Amino acid sequence: HAEDELSRSSHSNPGKSLVNGIKANLASNSPKSNLPVPMGPPVYVDLAYIPNHCSGKNTDLEFFKRVRASYYVVSGNDAANGEPSRAVLDALLEGKSQWGENLQVTLIPTHDTEVTREWYQQTHEKQQELNIMVLASSSTVVMQDESFPACKIEF
Questions:
Q1: Cβ neighbours of residue 120 under 8 Å, at least 6 residues apart?
Q2: What stretch of H or E contains 106?
Q3: What domain range includes position 47?
Q4: What percent of the chain clears pLDDT 90, i.e. is strictly above it?
Q5: Per-residue pLDDT tens over the stretch 106-140
Q6: 8 in a domain, yes or no?
Q7: How many structural domains does the chain have?
């Protein structure tokens, strides 16, 4: 039954039943698939938002091996949920060390958190080796009754 459904789905909506070029298992209720993701060339982008507020639930070393960005945005600000995750920040260092090229990378945290401060201080030497710069901004944007930190990015 699931195969008939998959066949109909792919004819009426091509590509909809594919996950990274592999047929999706429609019978699975699991949010994460156990299907192997085929290796391919890395993707180079100017700006990448680290998924799920930099939580280790969806982002790991493979993300940083495959998604090579000039700028990564880290938006996590919820220590109780592990956001941002120290493991994800460490995965950035490990992934970047495997690129084989010394491209400049800028990490843009949108919140000043204990995790990012400790990571920055403890890995600063490694960041310099890998040509990773972490932006910190003392600029503040004030709009109506709200104020928040800001930084400017130029491409």
A1: 127, 134
A2: strand 105-109
A3: 43-149
A4: 37
A5: 998 888 888 888 999 999 999 999 999 998 766 67
A6: no
A7: 1
